[in-house]
Amino acid sequence: MITALIAEATKRAGLIWITIGTHGHPYPAWHIWRPAPGAGSQPPGAAYLVTGPGEQPLPGLRAGHQVGVTVASSQTGGALVTWTADVSRVEPGTREWDEVIGPLVAGRLNAVLAPGETSPAQRWARSGAVFRLSPVSGEITHRH
Description:
The chain is 22% helix and 37% strand. It is of the alpha+beta class.
């Protein structure tokens, strides 16, 4: 199944490349992959990433848009699969925020904390953004 390929490749990748807009160049992005809650016929999950001050720059990434996501092969370094993602922002205080913030923080062990901060999540809620990149109908735009 195509959506399973997207999920497995993206979950295993330490880095994905995001193309914002039709003429943009790809930006590297650290992310986590989270499966969809529950089981059954739901999509396999989504990639979650953080951007904002002190985090990876992803200019032009906005909720309500689509982006291209390229997953590189860990063996060759070349592109393994490219897929289209719907972009949505994960709002602080929501159930989804609570579910993804722990794994995101765990992946940023080297995050520099501002005075008074106990977690980078505080800064992300205040001045950054957490985004969900959900596969569009499991559509692979290019399989390499």
